[in-house]
Structure formats: structure tokens, C-alpha cells
Automatic annotation (TrEMBL), chains A, B, C:
Protein name: Ammonium transporter AmtB-like domain-containing protein
Domain Ammonium transporter AmtB-like: 42-399
GO terms for MF: ammonium channel activity
InterPro entries: Ammonium/urea_transptr, NH4_transpt_AmtB-like_dom, RhesusRHD
Subcellular location, record wording: Membrane
Transmembrane feature ranges: 12-32, 44-59, 66-82, 158-178, 198-215, 235-254, 291-308, 329-350, 375-399
Amino acid sequence: MFPKLIRMKYMPLFLFQIVLMMLFFVFTTYGGDTNHDQRGYEDTHVMIFIGFGFLMTFLKKYCYSALGFNWFLAALVVQWALLNQSFYSMKNNTIEITKKHLLEADIMSATVLITFGALLGYASGLQLLFIAIIETVVGCFNFWLVEHIFKAADVGGSIAIHAFGAYFGLGASLALNFKKKTVPSEGAPTVNLNGASYVSDVTAMIGSIFLWIYWPSFNSALTNSNMAYQRAVINTYLSLAAATVTTFAWSAAFCKEKGKFDMVHIQNSTLAGGVAVGSVCNMFIGPGGAIAIGIGSGIISVLGYTYVTPALEKIGIRDTCGVNNLHGMPAVFSGILSAGVAASATLQVYGTDLHGIFEAIAVDGSGRTAGEQGLYQFLALVSTIVVSSVGGVITGFIVRAPFFGQLKQNEEYDDEPNWELPGAH
Amino acid sequence: MFPKLIRMKYMPLFLFQIVLMMLFFVFTTYGGDTNHDQRGYEDTHVMIFIGFGFLMTFLKKYCYSALGFNWFLAALVVQWALLNQSFYSMKNNTIEITKKHLLEADIMSATVLITFGALLGYASGLQLLFIAIIETVVGCFNFWLVEHIFKAADVGGSIAIHAFGAYFGLGASLALNFKKKTVPSEGAPTVNLNGASYVSDVTAMIGSIFLWIYWPSFNSALTNSNMAYQRAVINTYLSLAAATVTTFAWSAAFCKEKGKFDMVHIQNSTLAGGVAVGSVCNMFIGPGGAIAIGIGSGIISVLGYTYVTPALEKIGIRDTCGVNNLHGMPAVFSGILSAGVAASATLQVYGTDLHGIFEAIAVDGSGRTAGEQGLYQFLALVSTIVVSSVGGVITGFIVRAPFFGQLKQNEEYDDEPNWELPGAH
Amino acid sequence: MFPKLIRMKYMPLFLFQIVLMMLFFVFTTYGGDTNHDQRGYEDTHVMIFIGFGFLMTFLKKYCYSALGFNWFLAALVVQWALLNQSFYSMKNNTIEITKKHLLEADIMSATVLITFGALLGYASGLQLLFIAIIETVVGCFNFWLVEHIFKAADVGGSIAIHAFGAYFGLGASLALNFKKKTVPSEGAPTVNLNGASYVSDVTAMIGSIFLWIYWPSFNSALTNSNMAYQRAVINTYLSLAAATVTTFAWSAAFCKEKGKFDMVHIQNSTLAGGVAVGSVCNMFIGPGGAIAIGIGSGIISVLGYTYVTPALEKIGIRDTCGVNNLHGMPAVFSGILSAGVAASATLQVYGTDLHGIFEAIAVDGSGRTAGEQGLYQFLALVSTIVVSSVGGVITGFIVRAPFFGQLKQNEEYDDEPNWELPGAH
């Protein structure tokens, strides 16, 4: 980029914003009359902008970027997702926007922010924003596959949001780090900024705890009966509580120092209970079952940070926030659980909620059998992992083009390249 | 003030609290039966106390004062506003208090907190509190003018809250800084505390993002049909998202350093979309129109910080938070938009919402014409700017009296004069 | 504890989590159909995990522990409370869980977190967790006494939650500090970590303000008519606002330095208005009465920090957060008020709400008289204080057993013994 043009480097995004405006003028209108409020919208909104944003402030010198890019990405993606996710159900070339669509756009932006977590600190701003635009298209397509082709039950989005976002991110990470030259730093040795400070770990807790608090609202927002809503809230609450207790006990057991807690576990593995229960939270898993899922997810996540993240790093997949441990593996766990729970669903237990939860199972027995539904749940999971990881790898290679301004090694995990920083601090 | 009496310096406010208690005993009672909950109340409450409070913690050594005075002012003003705003509609000398009134008192306190943003760091505690008491009286009177005399549509309060608060603040700033003697510091050179630290910019983001998140709730809280509510939420959401993308792109273009973001823009101009859409958010501006307004407001706000704030400072108007760029100019933009949108409103498009939004336009055509309504919108805006800026100047001159303890130059932007500070940090 | 086993020190809690899972499998099921949402749940959830957690980050080197143990304790207690609090009303050995039960479990966890506030920084992790498990059993029993035996009106839980938690904590503090040997530190002099830093006081404000904001939701969540709900919100809002103004004015008057605010008062005494109005907030105290209660509680609380906390410390009761001033004394005030207000309740004023608020007073006059109800309110308060303080003392002595790993003096108020800390900060 020419020095004089560097101020203009984000102007392509502004042009994209102008295009979005024109698309909205042409294709959208306000939705018809709605007599009920969309529950879960405000709480989910907090999760996206405060939750994800502050969770990623744990890096000591990347707080501005974590908060800023989280905001920039999500503000762009929600607009773009409103169009993409309604593209497949447009009538008369018109998209009717309701508050429910805003909620769904927020949920879709979570996908991109999960991917951001994998790339945090070593992808440039332009790389992140281009990835976000592509990922939204692929993610909305995959969401449509899961919902309308596989007709999978996935009310909390563990398959279509969490698994998708995590494996798209790991795919992009593989591509971005593939045979990357590590330029040795000249002059003074580079300080490793890939770590927390005392204060940054505290601000990260703002994000972590708000995510934890509103997760029951997130998982239950798109349920379609009062009883299913209540089950989703209860199951998510219990799974999160059990994952939290488990995380603390196992963190002390697997820490480096004797019997101390590791903040990385506490900020992340505590949340795995929300992911792991996501696909099944509106089903009849029982309060005890929800707790069992929470315990399992806490163990998976802590062990993931201890063993899997270092192993991935060896094969060239950097995962700064450990999204594989918070979103990826717990989501796979949830997808497999959903196959099993669906396969054993009966009209006797589910009553009128049976068709509400499993759209393709008819109450009169004319649709899928429970076993078939279980198979489709599994296929939706496998399909999502394939689409997201392949999509991530391809997108990752595209953004290695010089235009996107790949960071030098000494610019990583640092706000300095992107922000005017206060002098003394 | 005599040294021994200095501990008593806030006791006049306690006496005012006692007077408030007596007025409540005499004039208030609980409101009648209400079958619905008041939506938007809790979210607005977060905006006032967390949003405004933390947004103003961006100054490195004024965090306690920002949070403390925000809280002190708002807690006083909500009580005082409950009385003032119902003064004009009292029956039998009794004010019936409902949850809706609490919401309206919170909204009125926003006016005072916007003014506080202009005076942040250089007005003393007693000055701020006295200004708050006067401003509440004038602000409630102006609110009554806008709503009941001009009958202007202003559901998000851009005219009666944002423009009023900003120009009252600039007026007070002009008066406070008029021919002020700048005493040169003796001994060691004064450190300039009018700036951020790395941590204070992060805590400011808590406020900024919470304001952003709940702005759709704020703008839509006082709508009076389900469809108007939904439009207000959608329009505010889209305007904010577009303002955010615009702010990031333009901040990089207009920053001091090459292509970097300026935290002042990110914390503030992102929110201008909420202000600019405020007066028109329940109208049929279309989703594309909402995005256009957001884009415009982001540009206005970033350019305001770059060019207008330094120009105002030269003529003696200090605006610490840049409330003119976040609240003032975007609110004027919103008021002018509301005149245009109102003037083109038709029964065909608005249906039963026409009278709900424009109280003075009757569905049977007996009231104002759309063009007349547009004129009244404009008059409400002009009147508000005149009342607020004149009120601000007068109040500003009053609080220059010695009793209010004007700060010395080396006490500015510093918590030290007001707080017991921890020793080592 | 053997060095090799120290990693396993929290595994007993994991075993307890496994036991909880089994109890949930055996005893619980989803509750029946509910047509309404449980109001106040999400807001209360924020208070418990963000509010209490961040309020206790005021200590400069105990932020991780404050947030971590708050989370660990509450996640454990909510599960345990769900069983304990329904134990007395079980039918067919089955507990039906609804969203309302989740709210009540959150409320019960407040009790334990108040106790945590008294012991903050000098009780070990295992001590805190064991105390939490015992306190939940005793607290749920006491709650049942207050609600079903004394049939006391206590909608905001001032008696059963705030007084209980505070005096259980002071009891445990007495036991933990009784004839404790203070080992003089060897080598370098110990730094006193029992104090705030500039940043930790700011993060504490996150907790304080969120508690303040959502307190009206907390106090009103369990009301059982629309009018009672609205009164509870209005009274709590006004009491908090008045307590806040009072706290600022009196803090400046009673501070150590001339006319400055003390952050300890601002973070805590502002909230006393929510406690003091808790037991009576759904009653006809009038808006003026609510303000009077707020003023009174602010004064009690500031004077408590100034005079009572040092006096308690002299007799061996350490109260790190001053829970006696925020929860204890204001709750006693509320309990006494509730006796007086109940004794003067009449059918004429209360109408159909009379029986709704005072379960034991029948509308046809066949139940208790108002005077009798007042007596029972008082007895509920006295009984709670006795049960909690005796329970606290006994539990405190139990956790002095070596197994619970009492902290050495130089480990107090320090995250170091419990957390892997970042190197440079």
C-alpha cells in the first residue's frame, strides 16, 4: 500500500457499508404485525458485544483491538447476515425484517466472533473483516442446510454456530500459519505479548461472566413452546453451573503450579456447559442429565486446554483463545448427544412438543422415525465440520494476499499497529 | 469556606434530599392499576448508571469522579424529575407515580449527564449538582413545550433530551470558561491529566458498549403500538450498526497517525447513530433509510471531533467528552430529519399509527396537515436549542459564585480534590 | 496435605458435584406448564454473578479470588439450594423444577455471597466452600421457618437473606479469628494487601452499580400482584436514590480527609437503601416513606463503617467488606420496619393485596390480626439473627480443622496462594 493511501485502508469496508445500504433499500421492508416481543434478544445482544468483546481483552496489550474489532466485525456482520439468512426464504424479492431477525443476525455474528477468537492477535484488521464477510455467506448457507435440508434440531446452535465458527477458525488458522516465515526480530528482543496482565484478566472476566449469565437466554430464545422454553432455561442453567464447579476442581488438578487455578480455564471452560447442552437443551434430558452434560463438558474443555491446544499448535494451528476447547469440542459433544437423544425420543415423553422440536417427525407417524432423526442430527454435524473447515482453509489462503496486510511477527498481539495509544500508562 | 466547615460542603444537598422527601410525602401516591409492564425501563436504567458512568471514565485520573458524580447527580435528578415532569399534569395536587414515570425520570437524568459530559473534569462537585437541579427544572419545562405545545414527535428524545443536554452543557461551558484566569502552576510543572490511560480507555468501553447495546430499548420504550415499537428497535439497531462501521473507517482516515483508530471516535461516534435516528425511529423511514442515517451520523460525528471541537475550544467552549459530536449535532440532524419525514407522512403509509406517532394529526383530517407537523418539528428543535443554550449560559454564570468552589487549574481532571485515594497503585 | 496430593485439593467438591448429579437424577423433574415468564430472573442473575463478584474486586491483589470464588461458590450453591429449598414441600419424593425455582436458588446464593463478603481475603478456598455447603442447608431451613412457620412478609428477603447472610458471616468470622495466632512474617516485611488500588476500586464499581440498578427487580421478583409489583419497584428505586444522595453527603462529612468521599461508602452504603426497604417494599409505605427509609439506611451504613466496623474488629470480628453495614444493620432496620408497617395494615388501605402480602391475615378477619402479624415479623427477625449467628460460629469452628488449610497471615488478601498469576503486570 502506498504511504499516502494508508489512511484509506478501511475505506473498502465503508464502500461495502454503502452497498449494504443500497441492498437494504431495494430488498427489505418492515415485517408484518407481531403481537409478542422476541424474548432473548437484549440478553443475546449483551453476549455478542460485551461478552465476546471483553472475554478477548485477556491479552495484556491487545484490549483495544479485541474490543474494537469485535465491535467492528459484529456491526458489519449483523447487517450482512440479515440479508444472507433471509435470502433462501425471500418472497417477491422482499425480505421482511422483524425483531426476531435481529436476534438471528446477532446469533450469526457469534459464528464470526468465535472464529475471531482463534485468530486473535495475529490476523490483521483487513484479514479479519474479509474473513467475516465470506464466513457470513458460508455460515448462512450452512445454517440453511442444517435447518431446512437436514432438518436437525439445534435450538442453541451448537452445531450451526459453535462448531461452524470454531472449525472455520481452525481452518483459517491452518492456512494463515502454513509455511509462514518467522522473521527474527532485529535490535531489541521482542517481548512476547501473547499473555495476560493482572488487569486484563479481570476485564476478561466481565465478558466471561456476562456470557455465562445470559447463556440460558441465548439457548432458549428460539424455542417454540412455553414448556420447551422452560426446559431450555433449566437445562442450560444447570449444565453451566455443573461445568463451572467441574472446571474449578479440574483446573487445580491440571494446572502447572501446585493446586492453583488457571485463569484461562476459569474464563472459558466454565462456559463449555452452555455449548455442550445447546443442541439438546429443549429436549427431555432431565435436570440430572443436564448436570451430567455440564460435568462432561468441563472435563473435555480443561483437558483440551492442557493437551489438545499445544498439539494443534505443533501442526501449525494457532488457537489464541482456545475456541476448540470452548466451542469446538463441546459442540461436537452436543451434536453427538443430540443424535442419541433424538433417536430415543418418543411421543409418550414429548407429547405435543415432539413435532415442535423435531420438525421432520410428524405426530401421526408419517414423517421420520426417531432413529432417522438421530442419523440426520449426526449428518448435520459432520456436514457442518466439513463445510466450515474447508471454507476456513480456503478463506485463510485468500487473505494471505498482500492487499490484506499480513502482520509481521513483532506486530502480533499488539494494539500499536492499529490504535493511537495514550502516551503514559 | 471555613476550614472546619469543609466537611459539611455537601450537606446542602442532603437538605435538598430532606425537602424532596417532604414534597413526596405531600404530593405523591402510587399510580392506579396497570396490567402491563413498562418495557425498556431496566435497559434504560443500565444506560444511565453504567453507560454514562463508565463512558466518562476515559480520563486517566478522573474515574472515581466520573462514576461518583454520575451516580450522585442521577440519583438526585431522578427524584427531582419525578416531581417536575408531572407538575404540569397534576390532578388534585397529587402526582400518581408508576413504573413509566420512573422510566421518564431516568430519561430526564440523561439530559443532565450529557451536560456533565461537556463539563467533565473542570466543574466542581457543587457546581455540577447545582447545575443539575436547575437544568432539571428547565429541561422538564422544555420537554413539556416540545410534547404539549409544539406536539412534536420525538420518541427517542433527540430533540428534548440530546439536543437540550448538549447545548445546555455548551452554554454552561461558555459561561464557566469566560475570561477565566488561568493561574500558572507554581513549583513543579502541572501534569496534563486531560487524557486517557490504557486501562481507563478499556473501562470507558464498558459504558460505550452498554449504551450502544440498549439504545434500541431506549428509543423504543415510549412507542405506543407493537408495530411502532418494532420499527423503532429495527431502525435504531441498523442505524447504530451503520454508524459503527462508518466510524471505524473514517476514524482511520482522519486520525493523526497513519491509518490508526482513535479511541475517542470509537467510544463516541459509534453511538451517534442512536441519537440521529431518535426522533424518527418509529416512523416509516425504511431499513435502508435507517442505515443511511447511521452512515451520515458517523461521518458528522468523526468530522465534529476532528474540526468542530478544536474550533469551539478556541472560542472558549471546552467540551471534554465532545458531547456536541455525540449528542448535539446528531440530534440537530435528527430534528431536521423529523421535520422532513413528518412533512411527507401519509395516512396510506402510516395507517392507524399516523395519529399514534403524530398526536396533532387526526386520522379524519381535522388536525394538522403533514406539512404543518413538519414545521412544528422544526420549531421544537429551534426552541429547544434556544432555551437550553440560554439556560446553560445563565446557570453557568450563577455557579461562578465563590460558594460553589470553582476548581483551580491544577485541580482539573483530577480525583484528588474529591476523593480519598489509595496510596500505592 | 501431602505435596503430591495438593493438586487434588478441590476434588472433594467435584465428588460433591457428582453426588448432586445423582440426587438430581433421583429426585427432580421439570415443572408443569407455566404460561407466564418469571420476571426478575435475568436481572437477579446479573446481581449474583457480576454484582457480588465485581463488588468484591476492590482489594488490589484479590481480584481473581473475589471473582473466582464468587463464581465457584454460587455455581455450587444454586444446585444445592434447588434441592434444599424444595425439600420441605416435596410431593411423592419428587421436586418439580421451574424457572421460579432457579430465581429462588439465585436468591439463596446471595446469602452465601454476603457471608463471603465478611470473610473475604482471610478464609481459604476450602473453608469458603465448606461454609457455603453448610450455610445453604441452614439458610434454607431458616427460610422455611420465616416463610411457613412465622409466615412473615419478607418479599425482598431482608430478613431471610440479608440479615441471615450477614450474621452467619460475622459468626463465622468470630470463630475463625478466635485466639488465632498471628505469626510474625519472616524476612521482608509483609505488605498490607487489605486495601484498594485505583483500578480495583473502579472494577468494584461495576459490581456496585449493577447491584444498585437491578435491585428493584430483585425486591419485586416474588410479588404476587401487578400493583404489589409496581409498588415494590417504585419503593426500591426511591429508597436507593435517597440512600445514594445521603451516602455522598455523609461520606464527605465523616471522611478522614477534609470533605472528600470515601470509596468504601460509595460502593456500599448507596446499596443499603435496597436492603432497608426489602421487607416492606410491597407494602403501602408511600413514596415519601420509601425516601425516608433510604435516607435512614444511608446514615446507618456510613456511621456503621465509621464506628461499628472498627469496634467489631477490636472484639475479633473482621468484616472485610463491611457486610454488617451494607446488609446486617439495614436488614435489622427493615425487619423492625416490617413489624411496624404490618401492625398498622388495614383492609381499607391494602384491599385485595392484604392477604397477598400477609398470607396469615385473612380478608374475612379469620386469620391473624395486624398486630399479631407485626409480632411475628419481629420474631422472624430475632429467630433469623439467632439461627444465623449460632450457625456461623459453629461452622466457623468446624472449618478450623487442618484439612481446610487455614491461610497463614502473609497469604491473606492475596491471589498468589490460589492462582497462577501473570508474570509482568
